[in-house]
Amino acid sequence: MKENQIPQIAVSANASLFLYLKERIGDRKSKVEAYCDLLDKASKRFVSRFLRNKDYEIETNQCHVTITDLAAEWHWHRATVRSYLERMEAFGLIQKITLPKSIVITIPESMSLSELKEEFSSLELSESEAQILDND
Questions:
Q1: How much is the pTM?
Q2: 3-state secondary structure string, the chain?
């Protein structure tokens, strides 16, 4: 083996391990948690309380939010929320309709919301799983 070659090692890991290893800083939501929040809001056809008087009809798999509300809820800067939503749209995970002071977010129907929520909720660590990992 050459001196500057690094041997490759295969590691077996699952989502629970990565959630355990993920750093948690205060109340700030992770990108996965923010996406789960958008899925939840879209499944409930959520409309921000400041927008309830607006004349915009929310359809299935949509939510009507403001950048400021999401930033406060996720404990992110508004610019971070904007760039995150743009990135999620580029990945094809959301579609945005930008209105003067709000955004309507649509979750595309390529995968049902219940399937997506189930997929992401399986990433949630239960307290007992975290304790098992701590003991290892």
A1: 0.64
A2: CCCCCCCCCCCCCCHHHHHHHCCCCCCCCCHHHHHHHHHHHHHCCCECHHHCCCCCCCCCCEEEECHHHHHHHHCCCHHHHHHHHHHHHHCCCCEEEEECCEEEEECCCCCCHHHHHHHHHCCCCCHHHHHHHHHC
